[in-house]
Amino acid sequence: xxxxAEQSVTPRYGQAIxxxxxxxxxxxxxxxxxxxxxxxxxxxxxxxELWEAFxxxxxxxxxxxxxxxxxxxxxxxxxxxxxxxxxxxxxxxEELIEYAPVIGDGGEFQxxxxxxxxxxxxxxxxxxxQPERVEAVMASMFKLTRWAxxxxxQPSGIWFAHxxxxxxxxxxxxxxxxxxxxxxxxxxxxxxxxxALSQIQANSALREHLRRLADxxxxxxxxxxxxxxVQQLVRTHPRWGKERIAEQLELSGRHLNRKLAEExxxxxxxxxxxxxxxxxxxxxxxxxxxxxxxxxxxxxENAFVRAFRRWQGVTPARYKAQGVDRD
Length: 327
Description:
Elements: E1 8-9, H1 11-24, H2 30-37, E2 42-43, H3 44-58, H4 63-70, H5 77-84, H6 89-103, E3 107-114, E4 117-124, H7 130-148, E5 157-159, H8 168-174, E6 179-180, E7 186-191, H9 204-221, H10 226-236, H11 242-248, H12 253-262, H13 267-284, H14 289-295, H15 301-312, H16 316-321
Parallel strand pairs: 5-6
Antiparallel strand pairs: 1-2, 3-4, 4-7, 5-7
Helix pairs in contact: 1-3, 4-7, 5-6, 5-9, 10-13, 14-15
């Protein structure tokens, strides 16, 4: 296995490249493909070589886009299954942000809202064939999200920071989604209401098992960020406050705040994001509002109702009543 401090990628993603090359009748250097056979993780430098060989052999400027549209859930390691077993698209995207390092260290995902639109941003950390690899990531997000939601996902578009690699008509023949180039960043956009789209492979019991597996993998890789560990602790102990969480991390509350600030986050925002997810899941499971308020550590039911209205824009009762219509 590679050094845990070294940037790496799951070998399953490399296998997707090799399989695509085989379908295209391409011959890749044997030493590159042999490396994948018994590797537990693939160093990012090896992945760079594989991408260069794949793109050069194909001679196709849209090789990355084509690959992304061929990506299967299994190519994303255990995280792929974790994402599709989530109840809703919104939950899957939250898990993607937290567990993306299991797939690889080639980039980071962030989720943000603007008016009635949601954007999942992708910031690559790549020096070799970056445009092609970004197109592969964005195309696979589009394709797998549409599949996981039973075809109901309708994005507003995909934005790329690079210039087109081929005529726009060539792109249109491959992907049924509006595309925009030379954008400030790479992201996939869609209406806020689609966060509530249910997923056809939702399985809460399997999801919890896969989440534990992903936690173990992150820990082994040394990639579990402080924010992810805070979210995990809050999810397990939603009543705990900052000082108790900090104690578990062997930090003071003040030091925890400073460390989170380095990631552009705060304990309050992280705790509330987890509480919001727990609350929504509990309401969808038809649990009593008073019980949810107690579980999350609110002083009383009214305090929880006020917080939930701030999070979701509706009361818990209204949210529960609209449950069957939110997708």
